[in-house]
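Appendix B, Record 12. Input sequence as logged:
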Amino acid sequence: MDLCQSLKALNRKCVIIKIEHLKVWTEEEKSWWRRKPTKPEVIILNDVSASLKTGDFVAVIGPSGAGKTTFLVSLAGKCTLPSSGTVTVNGTDARRVQRGVIEIVPQFDVFLDSISVREHLVFMTEMKLGSIKKPPHRQTLKNLLTELKLKMLQHSPISSLSGGERRLLSLAASLLSSPQILICDEPTTGLDSYNAALIVGVLKQLAASGKTVICSVHQPSSDLFREFNSIALMSEGRMVFHGSQEECKKLFNRFDLRCPKNYNPAEFYIKAVSQSRDDYEKVLENYCDQFDEDESSSPACAQMYSQT
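Logged structural output:
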């Protein structure tokens, strides 16, 4: 049984994530002996709106400083900065959803290198689920070791793992609670092409199994970028576009912004909205209008959820 099949039964419920007019900023810092603020207020996210659903495998792309990481942290309900707007999961504030529904896979792996892969996962199981002596918990651990290709490494010290294997171990720890929403901050950064493809392939299977998988990706290759079924393009703290790859291509073509043959689409979209203010405004205005139209009719999945 592959990963998609083994996890499908755990993800029956349709999940709708709604982000509406989200704004996040840093407060200005004032000194008691200076009249002017030492640090002015900085807007990180500005009027961001989007809607994500079960099965979405989202690539969050954009130039450095676009607000990608803050966006992901806000989706998880863990943003500590001042904010306005709403982020809801099936109508519940993301900050108040049940523990384990949303999991974040951090960009940087933190392990005790002296312990083994299995020891780390046993410890994380005890922390997240309870006693490892319970048969369901042991079975969950066994399945993850098999499906994430860690079974042959379970007795190896973490210090001996490659970058891709360490990333798989982080992913396994996040999947122990069977989250419905998985958020990954640059999961392929620092990996070679083989390990990056391995990680993206596993994440794609998780999305196909019924999870919502959201990843910020930095300079993805063309092959990796094609694996995502949804794009969230950000620039200057705004959501410039969110939708399928085909929709993104058609929109940019409409504004005579055509990706050259054999050119990386992700890099093209980022450059298009970063280098030209006019192109940025046109794409942003179109997305805002389209989002408002989509919100006027309730998604079928949301109607199904309201009936449960």
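The first strand starts at residue 16 and ends at 26.
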